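#struct-pred

JT: dropping the chains for the assembly here, can someone run the whole complex?
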Amino acid sequence: MTALRCIAAPISFLALERFALGELESSRRTLVEQHLEACAACRAALASINDDARALPPLVLESAPAVAPSKVVENTQQTNVRSIDSAKRGSKNSVARWAGSAGAVIALAAGVFLFVRAGSKGDGMDRPSYGEKGGSVVLSIVDEGGLETSTFEDHQRVQLLLTCPQRLDNMTWNVSVIEDGVVSHPVPVRTGVACGNRLPFGTLALSGGEPIEICVSASGNGSTEEDMKASGEDAGEWRSCLELRPKP
Amino acid sequence: MQIYERYGPALLRKAQRVLRSRSEAEDIVQHLFLELLETKNMNVDLPYLYRSVTNRCLSRIRDEKNRARLLAEDGGASFESRRADESVTMTQDLLVKLVAELEEDEGQVLVLYFFDEMSLEEIAEMLGVHRKTVAKRVDSIRTRALSMAGGAS
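RK: done, full complex below.
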């Protein structure tokens, strides 16, 4: 297909974006409007902007203070003990309500973020198994001081640390938050959360006065938990949950 | 974060236009806004962010690992210019090779002129240089691009 060419100097993409946002001053806006009336190429460029319906991915913070693996290992083994039971309880609801990315962006205002990291054999990160045979999928919550926590304050910033066996590095992970029986998914399933301390990270909202349960579950290569069940995979084997309680 | 919701999509489109990779574009935009958050610098407009994304795209292209990937994955893909009189067909191959040779300020002009299709006046205003300076840089880039494209064929 031959690209459309402009009748004169094209309206720049920056100007078109600002036009679409309503940011151009009136005189400039009038010029753009006049140009658009006559120029199919620029109309097409503007339409490509207006028609771009792709979701904005959640804004995630990866510049959080680094957590020493050894510290996390010790703390995780002490507190991450309710993975399977609570995970299965949470998973009953977890396929129902995937939130859009806008929700995740809004959630950032609460100042809570996820931090995902992969463990691998020999790196000192191996954990007792929480469902995945021969390996471990462990979730832990770490505060800004680098210490694992099981409590939270309103709008407290925390990291979510996911440790996986190396062979699950390509797996994507869904994050569910269960609060007062309501399941939300602040990280879109499309985006996923991967082992390996790579983007995308996710954003969670932790606020309010009720206990919150956070679960991660394997979703495969972009598939949802339902997809995995349909294909005979048991997503429930690769899951971990934690409960956070509001500080008294 | 209102500024992210407002300008994020435009910046993603811009970065993807240059890098031809949605995931790379998302990565660049994420890092930009994280830095803004860290510095609490929220009083920025779209032109400022456009320039920031331009620099980040250039840095990514200059990175040897990314350069190899860009060339391997989508080297022949071309950007469809709207300029009726533009003699350069900007491909990923050409972009990567040009960026490797150009000075930083020339690289900015390359992206702003050939991918964002900004006018000489707009670029001059954004970069704080004279219009004639921009025009010279565009001519220089075009000459090199045509030479490279001719040499490649």
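JT: nice. The beta strands of chain A are 138-143, 151-152, 158-163, 172-179, 182-184, 193-194, 212-220, 239-246. Residues 69-246 of chain A form one domain.
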